[in-house]
């Protein structure tokens, strides 16, 4: 089979051919139906810092994967050929597809069964792929770490592929959501999601006494502004990595007894919760689809900032 593989930083993806995978003990092989593209794919191709996460090269990229079970290894219970599943990239195996092992930019994918999440009936494969990382990460930040609940006053910073899902999850759970989005072209999306209002800068929400602010942008100034926006004993969850440092007003951190929490990835349970929300139609993320041959150009589109929501390759 042919797969899109990473061979080195600043090198284009290579379409390499290698034997079809067979499942080992505790593993299954999937026929990949959909594989999501992510801004971290851009990072891998452009930044040498990602090499520490890639122990073996070349490696097939693609960490957002959904497909159908085609083969089952020894010791696997509870799954059968034909089952529709997604792959949690932070599952029990502890080895992320597309990084520590071959990922989903290929027709077939070998995966430890402990990383699988069943797809609900009626959930399309493109949404299932997006739900494994973008959905999981969004949900984990706002629901699992942020513990959003009905009646909460919530601000969501950034309405990109993650923030749009997180904001909608908060609305579905009964929170009053204010969206913070610098790109005014995206503002109509805030209304579609159900946000009560949208502002351009978190600084506009200073003194707003928010229960929870989730920073899906993470540009330093956004996190600093969140401190001004929360109430006493309020919570800030930092997800985005637009900048890897922030300067905070520690006086307000102390006086407000601010809870500043990081959120990284998620769990199989988070993926399952997202799948249920997607399948019910309560959360409908923006997803654009491309073909297998278009994956390299799709990553370039992400790099150029031309993608709204999530981009998923259908195989």
Description:
There is one protein chain. With 315 residues, this protein is an alpha/beta fold. It folds into 2 domains: 2-132 and 266-314, Quinone Oxidoreductase, Chain A, domain 1 (Alpha-Beta Complex), CATH 3.90.180; 147-262, 3-Layer(aba) Sandwich (Rossmann fold), CATH 3.40.50.720. It has 8 helices and 16 strands. It has helices at 39-46, 125-145, 163-172, 187-193, 221-229, 250-255, 268-280, 295-303; strands at residues 2-6, 14-17, 27-37, 59-60, 64-72, 84-87, 108-112, 116-118, 153-157, 176-180, 197-199, 210-215, 230-238, 259-262, 287-291, 310-314. Helix 2 crosses helix 3 and helix 2 (125-145) packs across helix 7 (268-280). The longest helix has 21 residues, at 125-145.
Helical fraction: 25-40%
Return the average pLDDT rounded to an integer: 95
Provide the CATH superfamily of the largest domain: Medium-chain alcohol dehydrogenases, catalytic domain
Helical stretch count? 8
């Amino acid at each position: 089979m042919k797969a899109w593989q990473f061979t080195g930083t600043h090198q284009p993806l290579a379409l390499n051919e290698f034997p079809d995978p067979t499942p080992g003990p505790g593993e299954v092989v999937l026929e990949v139906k959909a594989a999501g593209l992510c801004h971290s794919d851009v990072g891998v191709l452009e930044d040498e810092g990602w090499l520490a996460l890639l122990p073996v090269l070349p490696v097939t990229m693609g960490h957002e994967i959904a497909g159908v079970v085609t083969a089952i290894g020894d010791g696997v219970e509870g799954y059968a050929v034909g089952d529709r599943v997604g792959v949690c990239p932070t599952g029990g195996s502890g080895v992320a597809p597309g990084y520590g092992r071959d990922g989903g930019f290929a027709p077939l994918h070998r995966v430890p069964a402990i990383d699988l999440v069943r797809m609900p009936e009626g959930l399309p494969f493109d949404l299932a792929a997006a739900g494994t990382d973008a959905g999981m990460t969004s949900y984990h930040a706002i629901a699992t770490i942020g513990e959003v609940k009905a009646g909460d006053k919530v601000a969501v910073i950034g309405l990109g592929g993650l923030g749009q899902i997180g904001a909608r999850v908060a609305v579905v759970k009964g929170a009053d959501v204010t969206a913070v989005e610098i790109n005014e072209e995206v503002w109509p999306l805030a209304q579609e999601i159900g946000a009560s209002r949208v502002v351009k800068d978190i600084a506009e929400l200073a003194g707003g006494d928010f229960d929870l602010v989730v920073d899906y942008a993470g540009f330093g100034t956004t996190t600093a502004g969140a401190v001004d926006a929360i109430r006493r004993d309020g919570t800030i969850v930092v997800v985005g990595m637009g900048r890897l440092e922030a300067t905070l007003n520690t006086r307000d951190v102390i006086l407000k007894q601010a809870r500043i929490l990081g959120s990284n990835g998620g769990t199989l349970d988070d993926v399952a919760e997202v799948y249920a929300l997607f399948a019910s139609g309560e959360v409908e993320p923006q997803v654009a689809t491309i073909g297998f041959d278009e994956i390299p150009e799709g990553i370039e589109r992400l790099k150029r900032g031309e993608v709204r929501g999530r981009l998923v390759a259908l195989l």
